[in-house]
Design goal:
- This protein is α/β, with parallel strands linked by helices.
- The chain folds into two domains: 226 residues, Vaccinia Virus protein VP39 (Rossmann fold, 3-Layer(aba) Sandwich); 64 residues, Golgi alpha-mannosidase II (Immunoglobulin-like).
- The protein has a nine-stranded mixed sheet, sandwiched between helices. It has a five-stranded mixed sheet with strand order 2-3-4-5-6, with no helix packed on it. The chain has a two-stranded antiparallel ribbon with strand order 7-8.
- Helix 2 packs parallel to helix 3.
- The radius of gyration is 19 Å and the shape is globular.
- It starts with 10 loop residues before the first strand and ends with a strand.
- 41% of the residues are buried.
Length: 317
Amino acid sequence: MENSHLASEPKIHILVSKGWQDYTLLDSGNGRRLEKIGPYRFIRPAVQAMWKPKLETSQWQSVHGIFLANRSESGGQWQIQKPFPPSWEISYKALRFKAYLASSRHIGFFPEQAPHWDWIQQIISSSSKPVQVLNLFGYSGVASLAAASAGATVTHVDASKKTIQIAKENQQISRLSNSNIRWILDDALKFLRREQRRGVKYDGIILDPPKFGRGPKGEVWEFFALFPILLELCSQVLNPRPLFFVLTAYALQASAITIYNTVSEYLPLSNGQFSCGELALEEQSAKRLLPMAIYVRWQNNALPFYKEKISSLEQEG
C-alpha cells in the first residue's frame, strides 16, 4: 500500500491493535458493529460496514444496549436492553480506565487508538532524557496515561470539565496518581497561544481534534477552518528536536493523504519519518477490518530502538 508518489514518501499503514483482552469487535455489517466491552455487549453505528454480518441474528439480539442514530448521523440515543452499571473498569495491558455509555455514542475510550498508545510508550521509554508531552483534545485521558506510565510529564488539555474529571478518575484507577500529569480545562487554540508566549516547548504532541466542537467558554472549533491554525501553533511549541507527533481524525471528508500533506506543510519536521494511514478494528467473526479513523504521525530517527518494535504493530495494506 506504500505510495512512492507522495512527498517525502511517507509510509502508509493500516494499524490494527492485537493487544486487547477487555474489548472485542465481535461482528459488523448492515451499517452496525457488535462489540463486547468488558462483560457487556453493545451495538453502535458503523456506516462503512456495508457488508453482511457473519454472526447469527440471535448473537445480535443478545445485547445490553443499542445506539439509535438520527438520520443526520449527528446524534441519537441509547436504547437499553439489559441492565448494566453506569460505568465499569476495563484494561488495556497495564492501563486501566472506565468504560461508559455517552450520549454521543462514545464508550469512554477509542479502542482503535491502542496502537498509538503502544507507540507513544515505546518512544518515551527509549528516550534517555525527560520527556514533556502535550495531549490536546485529550478526552478521557488514556493516551495521557500511556505517556505518563512510560515516564513522561504530561499536559492534558480538554474543553469538557466532566471529561477531565473522568480522566482524573482513570489516573487513579491505573494507579498513576503519583505521575506528573497537568489537567487543563481550556480551548486548545487559546492554550497553545499562551504556551507560545511563555516559550514552553514539548517533546511530543498528541492531537485528536473533533470535526466540530465548543470550548469551555463557547469557543467554536471547526476542523477544516481551524486545523491549519492549530498546526501552526503546534509548530511553535514543539521542541526544535522533538521525539514524536501524532494526529487522529474522525468523520472527515478527507483522506490520510490530505491530512499528511497539511501536517507536513505546517510542521516541516526533519531528521525523522512521517507515516499515515487508517486505524482499524478486526472482527472476531470474519477477520474483516473495519476502518475507524485516519491518522498521521512522525517519529524522530534518533531512537532506533522503537523502529523494529513499531513495525510489529503495523499491518501494511
